[in-house]
Design brief:
Elements lengths: L5 H23 L5 H6 L8 H19 L4 H21 L2 H19 L4
């Protein structure tokens, strides 16, 4: 992400608000709220939170990936994604899978020798 102007800070604030609302909204609504029932597991809107986070991650990661040049620069991304997918499949816990993926990404980034 390049630029330090108003657009950058607007995007950061929007991501923070969206992320906060996806986590805090269930605690802020009453137990009898129709919106809470629609967001509950089993409803069509249950995937809204993960979908928003995936969209934010895509918006952040894709520009970096598009700027890569050569296999050594791709290795940390590919390894991190593969490790995340395998950990999610094997462990069934998205939080632990993300931690495993970030750890593998960091190790591979260190091995490849990141240059900005």
């Amino acid at each position: 992400m390049t630029g330090g102007g108003l657009e950058f800070w607007g995007a950061v604030i929007a991501m923070a608000v969206i992320t906060y609302l996806t986590r805090a909204l269930p605690f802020l609504l009453s137990a009898r709220s129709r919106l809470l029932r629609r967001l509950a597991e089993g409803s069509a809107l249950a995937a809204l939170g993960p979908a928003l986070l995936a969209g934010i991650a895509t918006a952040v990661i894709v520009p970096d990936i598009m700027a890569l040049d050569g296999w050594p620069q791709w290795l940390p991304y590919a390894g991190g994604l593969l490790a995340t997918a395998l950990a999610a499949r094997r462990l069934g816990n998205a939080g632990v899978a993300v931690i495993v993926g970030v750890a593998v990404y960091g190790v591979l980034l260190g091995l490849v020798g990141y240059t900005a």
